[in-house]
């Protein structure tokens, strides 16, 4: 059963302005340590940051929390990809207590972008209880 739905749309230009001003410090506020490694080898750093930010914001919305509540900071949320490129959230020490408390059984993530925008949709599911 669907528990929550979150969507976020980011103007890549806004991320570029922030990244141009703050540089690597901004990346460290958005990305966890493993994501930083991927970011460092990325050919399009602005797109990478925009898609990760949109994904993490969409997750926070699908959980009904918003970022920065209940220790849900962007740089404490990790996204990876399977062998086919499908993105997914790593259930780490930040997400595990939240998904247990909220009785989330599945998290689905879809990311898309153009040269101007990045978007992400997150659907959270539970087994039908609360």
Indicate the percent of residues in helices: 40-55%
Number of domains: 1
Biggest pleated-sheet summary: 3 strands, antiparallel
Radius of gyration: 14 Å
How much of the sequence lies in strands comes to: 25-35%
| Shape label | globular
* Secondary-structure element pattern, one letter each: EHHHHEEHEE
Question: Within the CATH hierarchy, at the fold level, what is the topology?
Answer: Ribosomal Protein L22, Chain A
In the CATH hierarchy, what is the class? Alpha Beta
Detail the poorly predicted runs.
Answer: none
Number of strands: 5
**What structural category do the secondary elements indicate?**
alpha+beta
Averaging pLDDT over every residue, what do you get? 95
Query: Kindly, what is the distance between the CA atoms of the first and last residues, rounded to a whole number of angstroms?
Result: 10 Å
Number of helices, counting only DSSP H or I runs of 4 residues or more: 5
Q: Based on the structure given, which CATH architecture is correct?
A: Alpha-Beta Complex
According to CATH, the homologous superfamily is 4'-phosphopantetheinyl transferase domain
What descriptive keywords fit this protein?
single chain; 130 residues; alpha+beta; Ribosomal Protein L22, Chain A; three-stranded antiparallel beta sheet; two-stranded antiparallel sheet; 40% helix; globular
